Amino acid sequence: MSENAKKGRLIVFSAPSGCGKGTMLKEILAAGNYRLSVSATTRDPRPEEIPDVSYHYLTKDDFSSRVERNEFLEHAEYCDNSYGTLLSEVDPYLENGVNVILEIEVQGAQRVRAVRPDSLFIFVAPPSIDELRRRLHKRATEPEEVIEKRINKAIEELTHQDEYDYIIVNDALEDAVNDFFAVVRAEELKTAAEK
Ligand code: 5GP
Asked: Quick check: 103 and 39 in contact, CB under 8 A?
């Protein structure tokens, strides 16, 4: 790649569980030059998940040694498990001009803001807490107490939405996806002075 070639954009995409981010991401990834970073986690795989595609599933020990070796761009605790973005999932792609999306929770987003302030920070919110509760129960991939824990976590995460550059309300999927592309386009059109 030549020195003047355009680097990809790092996009932080946060949404509490049940905001429909999975479906949104599927549409976004199908539409263009985006790659979703595969995170590392210490949580167990869900039945439908595929190792090294959905997540890199690590033992707690492996996760900690990688933290010590500075292999992570960011990492955080969420509902009793560790989650983190490996640098190897991000930098080689940005260098090649690919836009990289990090689908991470709010503490991780705060860390990325500290180390990569030029990134684009997008928060996806549910139309209402009642709708979020309904979606999580409908999904039913977790036991009741885990669902309750995630609902409480989601309510807490919603208090951080103003820390993001843009908030997209995912009421209708197509509108939310169009809003995502509009936001990325707006960012591309910003003058250097505003950046
Ligand atoms: P889940 O267990 O539902 O897949 O993910 C739980 C939460 O962890 C979600 O809010 C998700 O965005 C977040 N998460 C997934 N990967 C990462 C990561 O690499 N870093 C951080 N900080 N959070 C992550």
From this structure: yes
